[in-house]
Amino acid sequence: MDITKAIKASEIKRDWVVLDAKDKTFGRLITEIAVLLRGKHKACYTPNVDCGDFVVIVNATAVKFSGMKLENKEYFSHSGYFGSTKSKTLKEMLDKSPEKLYHLAVRGMLPKTKLGRAMIKKLKVYKSSEHPHTAQITKSK
Length: 141
Description:
Layout: E1 16-20, H1 26-38, E2 54-58, H2 69-72, E3 74-77, E4 86-89, H3 90-96, H4 98-107, H5 114-120, E5 123-125, E6 139-140
Parallel strand pairs: 1-2, 1-6, 2-5
Antiparallel strand pairs: 3-4
């Protein structure tokens, strides 16, 4: 009889994965990031343990979108006061703060718990191809 072994937090081995966003479709890239952050690509995946890898995104502004999303898709923010709703288009978000755009998209695919908040902290996004994590990198895709 086979026994399923649940992994402990002390037994987790985390890798650093670099993903180049240049000419990749945004949605498909985001799903790949979410899988890597959760650790679902590993044989030792345990749903209640953060066993995912660190993910570094380079060339974040060079990603592709299908259709008219750059002009039509809007992101809204609200401070809680009356009349304080603000909106930005996808193009504005991509130009000004691609880090926030990637975090918003990936956060929606992670658990809405303390575990999900710990997972999103392992995501690093950079506009250009330079990043300060060259010493930690083990894999590039």
